[in-house]
Design goal:
Elements (H helix, E strand, L loop, with lengths): L2 E5 L6 H12 L2 E4 H10 L4 H10 L5 H23 L3 E5 L12 E7 L2 H12 L3 H23 L11 E4 L5 H12 L8 H22 L8 E6 L2 E6 L9 H6 L7 E6 L2 E7 L7 H13 L1 E10 L29 E2 L7 H12 L3 E9 L1 H7 L6 E6 L8 H15 L7 E2 L1 H8 L3 H23 L1 H9 L1 H5 L2 H28 L4
Parallel strand pairs: 1-3, 1-4, 2-3, 4-5, 7-8, 9-10, 9-13, 10-12, 11-12, 13-14
Antiparallel strand pairs: 6-7
Length: about 500
């Protein structure tokens, strides 16, 4: 049976509906208040965080760190509760905590406005005008919180499987209808969806443990997991943490291996087929070396059966290597029977070079792809290409371009094709000719200026200037931008040739 997420607003009837649904189904019930209570016990002041977000909308680094810890606690609490059996959860947008988990039923409750207003007036003993203002303020604060925590619009109905409008429907009938929907095969657990939930739980527990240990509490760490393999990425200034991370996470239940990589940033590489001997691999790896970045592989196959991530077996790398910039890292989360050896070899090649940010395979629609991309990882670049291999070349190019445009709404990083990446890393013949022409024109302009100094000075401030002062303004207005553009193109080409970003 599924995990049922009921999302609603205060005094809107959503909580009562969730409790009635849990009673009818015989499921355990969990609400946001219990999650917040556990977060507070873990040292995360959720109330203060919400108030700070409302009073100071500018997101600070400390707020982001607390947010990530809160998400870890919330995810662990829900997964642990659901692992013991079926679950109905009531909150604001809790279903966003389990992307990639298929046995989730997402329900949005729309309250009846007049009934909600009456409830607020009665319970809080407020006059109508103040009650209306209270509802507006509360709804806006909740929308801001959901945007901050999940980076989504809670009013986007595409994020839900079902919307229940309580204007005419009673709670009892709504719960009865949801009982029938919850029993549909579309929402039943599968081995893949259960494995995906276990990975979410392992990742959340690792984040919590790292946050609670005083040695790693203030570190900027990225945590990923697959098949019991934890991938920890840390920044260069925190290289001293490499030997501490295994001590903190060594006895974590479900963790069979820990791999770490030191990286200043991350590059996400999305393709359908990978090859470690390809030119694209060399270009991405070269850029990763120049940036000090970790490379995360995401093998995407559009229209897979259930669109769920299933693990890929990857040969274990050597254990944590002392004295290197980081210990070998990997993150396999891929599809059963669908992981090819070239994908594994590409992952292993990155592991051996200390550049791996992990790798996973996702099959299905765009929502599955978006769900597999972590919002907490600081990507500096997304490389997208070599997708839809079963399509004709023209259709493949068009669909890849459309997918890249779709991802721009979800990933706050530049998105390039491998062809664009190659053009940005290497000087083409056209760029060489363009740079040479720009250099020649710059030299000619400077020669003309220095060989005709007397006449130029006369135009700018001498006798000629007195006779026609406007000529100097026109001359400067024309020459200055031309020289700037030519010089800029020449310098950009020189920096690319010298491999300077």
């Amino acid at each position: 049976m599924p995990i049922v997420f009921v999302s609603g607003v205060p005094f809107g009837g959503g909580e009562r509906l969730a409790k009635e649904l849990a009673r009818k189904l015989g499921y355990a019930f969990l609400d946001r208040e219990e999650v917040v209570a556990r977060a507070n016990e873990s040292g995360i002041p959720v109330g203060k965080l919400e108030v700070a977000l409302v009073k100071k909308p500018a997101v600070q680094e400390r707020m982001v760190r607390l947010r990530d810890r809160y998400l870890a606690v919330a995810t662990a609490t829900i997964c642990e509760k659901a692992a013991a059996g079926n679950l109905v959860y009531y909150g604001r947008a809790g279903h966003h905590l389990l992307p990639g988990v298929g046995h989730v039923l997402r329900v949005r409750v729309v309250p009846e406005p007049a009934r909600r207003l009456e409830t607020v007036m009665e319970r809080l003993r407020l006059p109508r005008e103040k009650a209306e203002k209270f509802i507006r303020d509360v709804d806006e604060d909740i929308r801001a919180w959901v945007r901050f925590v999940h980076d989504v619009d809670m009013e986007d109905l595409q994020k839900y499987d079902l919307v229940v409008n309580l204007e005419k429907l009673s709670l009892e009938n709504a719960a009865a209808a949801l009982c029938s929907i919850a029993e549909l095969p579309d929402f039943r657990p599968t081995p893949a969806s259960q494995a995906a939930m276990q990975e979410r739980l392992l990742r959340a527990r690792a984040r919590i443990r790292l946050a609670l240990d005083e040695r790693t509490a203030d570190a900027d760490l990225t945590v990923r997991s697959s098949e019991g393999v934890l991938t920890i990425t840390y920044v260069p200034r925190q290289a001293q943490l490499a030997p501490l991370i295994p001590d903190v996470l060594g006895d974590l239940p479900g963790c069979r291996e820990i791999r770490c990589t030191m990286a200043s940033t991350n590059i996400l590489w999305i393709q359908e087929a990978f090859r470690p001997d390809s030119g694209t691999y060399r270009e991405v790896n070269e850029l990763a070396r120049r940036w000090g970045a970790a490379v995360e592989l995401l093998q995407y196959r559009a229209g897979g059966e259930e669109g769920e991530a299933v693990p890929v077996e990857v040969a274990p790398a050597a254990a944590l290597k002392a004295g290197t910039g980081g210990v070998e890292d990997d993150l396999p989360e891929a599809a059963a029977g669908g992981a090819d050896s070239s994908f594994e070899r590409t992952l292993e090649a990155l592991v051996q070079e200390g550049r791996s940010g992990g790798g996973h395979t996702v099959a299905g629609g765009r929502d599955r792809l978006v769900g597999a991309i972590s919002r907490s990882v600081p990507y500096s670049l997304v490389v997208v290409d070599n997708l839809f291999l079963d399509k004709a070349p023209a259709a493949r190019t068009r669909m890849t371009r459309e997918l890249a445009m779709f991802l721009t709404d979800y990933v706050k990083a530049p998105i390039l094709s491998t062809a664009d990446l190659s053009s940005k890393l290497h000087l083409g013949r056209g760029e060489v000719l363009k740079a040479a022409a720009a250099g020649v024109l710059v030299v000619l302009l400077y020669c003309a200026i220095f060989l005709r100094q007397e006449g130029l000075l006369s135009v700018l401030g001498g006798e000629a200037h007195k006779a026609a002062p406007w000529v100097a303004s026109v001359l400067v207005a024309l020459l200055a931008p031309v020289v700037s553009v030519l010089y800029g193109n020449l310098l950009a080409s020189a920096m690319k040739w010298l491999k300077m970003d």
